[in-house]
Amino acid sequence: MIHLGQLNTLEILRETPPGLFLGDEEGNEILLPNKYVPASFEIGDKLSVFAYLDSHERPVTTTLKPYMKVNEFGLLRVTALSDYGAFLDWGLEKDLFVPFKEQARDMQEGKWYVVYCYLDEETNRLVASSKTNKFLSNEELTVERFDEVDLMVSRFTDLGVEMIINQKHKGLVYQDEIYRDLKLGEKLKGVVKKIREDNKIDLSLQHIGYKNIEPSAQVVLDALQRNGGSLPLHDKSDPETIKERLNMSKKSFKKAIGSLYKQQQIVIKSDGIELK
């Protein structure tokens, strides 16, 4: 099957005046216009091409690579406005259309927006939407605490910066944990810091190696979580109290809280430690 909005690896079937006809293993055919035909080729060669609808709504392919594909989020610029919606530059000859009903707010020519590209089942056309929240869901999470994830900056709020996680979920990096300027649509790595009871996700941009955290530090973190975020233990606590509470030596405890403090995960106070 030839998939619109995606890269397809297709076989060259024949050469015609308009261009090359390509086909898949199921007998489907599609045109690669002359302007995209490689300088040298042979019938039977395989080509990687992107399938979409041309200006006449005909399925065609191109060797150009779009800035985003179907079922993906991306940052695109508005090139033109019409009575029906806006058009975005996504790296192809034909711009990507955003109907008015799919605009979170009225788009303006020349401005950039985070959008989601999808195949409209009613028209079989590739369109985009800036109403990104309806394409994200935290109901069934595919991430866990401490997972390293791919992020995209989607919105700036008073609390912090909202992020798209792995093109599937949404999360938040709090303002006091952001140590550099972020740009709309910027892609970066992050870590799932906390998953709340309502499946809201707190994120961290610090490369702190949660997956490789030493066992003693993990024990302390788990104990903090079980005790509402605080423990009445510190580097001057009695060794027997630490052993009774955490089943570890005072030396291991001091090393653990030192590591967690450097990773900005805890606050050390005179009467104990707390999650930051």
Our count of domains comes out at 4
CATH topology of the largest domain: OB fold (Dihydrolipoamide Acetyltransferase, E2P)
| Strand proportion | 35-45%
Counted beta strands: 18
Q: Output the structural class.
A: mainly beta
Query: In this structure, how is the largest beta sheet organized?
Result: 5 strands, antiparallel
**Rg over CA atoms:** 26 Å
Can you name the CATH architecture of the largest domain? Beta Barrel
What global shape is seen? elongated
CATH superfamily of the largest domain: Nucleic acid-binding proteins
Q: Give the H and E element order.
A: EEEEEEEEEEEEEEEHEHHEE
- Which runs of at least 5 residues are low in confidence (pLDDT < 50)? 208-212
Name the helicity range: 10-25%
Going across the biggest sheet, name each strand in turn: 3-2-1-4-5
Number of helices: 3
